[in-house]
Amino acid sequence: MVNLNINLNGLKLKNPVMTASGTCGFGEELVDFMDVTQLGALIVKGTTREVREGNPYPRIAETPSGMLNTIGLQNKGIDYFVNTLYPSIEHLNEHIIVNVSGSTIDDYVYVCERLLDLPKCTAVEVNISCPNIKEGGLAFGTSCPAAAMVTKEVRKVWNRHIMLKLSPNVTSIAEIAKAVEAEGADSVSLVNTFLGMAINANTRRPVLSTITGGLSGPAIKPIALRMVWQVYHAVKIPIVGMGGIMNAEDAIEFFLAGSSAIQIGTATFIDPATCVKIIQGITDYCHLHNIENISQLTGALEV
Amino acid sequence: MKKKQGYLQLKDKTIFSNNYVLFELRVEEKFDFIVPGQFINVKVENQPDTFLRRPFSIHDVDYEKNTILFLMKIVGNGTKMLSKVSTEDKIDVLYPLGNGFTLAENKKVLLTGGGYGIAPLYHLAKELISKQCEVYFLLGAKTITDLILLEKFENLADLSITTEDGSSGFKGRVTQHPYLQDKITDFDCIYCCGPEPMMKAVSLLAIEKNVNCEVSLDQMMGCGIGVCLSCVAKTVRGHETSCIHGPVFNSKDIVW
Lengths: 303, 256
Description:
Chain A is an alpha/beta fold. Chain A has helices spanning 77-89, 105-115, 144-157, 173-182, 221-232, 248-257, 267-270, 274-288; strands spanning 6-8, 11-13, 17-19, 42-47, 60-63, 66-69, 96-100, 123-127, 161-165, 187-190, 194-197, 199-200, 205-206, 212-216, 239-241, 261-264. Chain A is 29% helix and 20% strand. In chain A, helix 6 (248-257) links the parallel strand 15 (239-241) and strand 16 (261-264). Chain A is globular and about 50 Å long. Chain B folds into 2 domains: 4-97, Elongation Factor Tu (Ef-tu), domain 3 (Beta Barrel); 108-253, Rossmann fold, CATH 3.40.50.80. Chain B has helices at residues 77-83, 119-130, 150-156, 196-208; strands at residues 4-15, 20-26, 39-42, 54-62, 67-73, 90-97, 108-114, 134-141, 158-163, 170-171, 189-193, 212-216, 232-235, 238-241, 248-250. The chains are: A alpha/beta, B alpha/beta. The interface between A and B is medium-sized, with 32 and 30 residues.
């Protein structure tokens, strides 16, 4: 019997597999394809204080073993989430984790305060890859002081689990992880997408409306693994790893590199049942390798 | 019907000379009503440069034989790989997706399109005929060899053709044909699927003459199931995904 339960610094989940924000909508979109209640947690689309229209079309570009996106955090705002979406999705999982995004620290704090009323919202995932409009649009996640400040202010109002989602577009992701750990983050999730671009040689134009966008998919997996490995050696809080996981074997690699849990993102676009297939695949791997507890694999890389 | 993921057997494949391919897929079990204008999202196997699925309109459905047909034009690596799938092989398909056309009843309707956009119009015509509609096809292309399946369309309903070079039918574009000019108000409803400039031009004419018109947009999709928010169309209500809210929209709802 394999035990997939994990204790993520106090957040107890029945297994370590979660959806990645922005790739599963609000969970409802996937119910025809898989049993969403089977997941360790459901991490829903990035939610902001206000309604966001998102970026102009075209918003994606297909690239070798991956894709670029520039959705621009299109969402209907926290009011709509609290009043309309949450009541319709709360049956989908015991842990509805909201990805919280904002342009100012006040935005993050406001959204978190609103989520306190929702009992199944057992954690927030704080997305610090957003531009900080008071600091000239530089993303919060690209500087230690800004990342620390967001964590500190959210910590003051949010007494449940804080998962800090790190941007990989930094010189040292381990330094950012240490900065947010010091301010009370309960876990870190990494990595968000890598800044990239795609060009149409024939038209000489960029493929994306915003010229640059975030790269995801198997193309980023080796870099994501390296970053998880580095952060694992820099902080004590648990890591939720992601970046191009397409199958259970990819997932196992993330555990070995230091992840305590994982998120499935872009793979859901290609196979909307990927999450449950990976839960089964991890179970099979553990049987085959005589692993009793999934947590034994965290950081178990042999070097 | 509920959305499904299935490994559907390729029962038949017809390759036309001008890079069009018609596929017939067999579904294992009986399936519910598929609304004309709904689409399928097809996985291209083991190709790193064709990472995402490819969406195609459903061209025809046979509820007796449990088959779904779709038409594709080979335009890039993904469609090229799909064109090489052998009959009896299985294809990973998500189906049926999206919102289809509104089915009028007992009306005089014009179904107009071009390119691979003609695909869903066939399925649509079948259902409209079963609802006692008087169906007229108006299909356009640059030249006659770009038009395929004409006999099939003609056997179903009245067919008119426009070609820009005059190689067959009316010389000009569909929007210059009398059906979309002085006779446009003879129709209760127009359904259009084709290249974006054609859909825009048809929509603007229909809106001007106050004729109800629906179009099936062809936005670049990431997932086809409403989770990636890539395929948005600019509507009067804001950005809406064409895979969930569309691909069929009322012309009046689109910000052209």
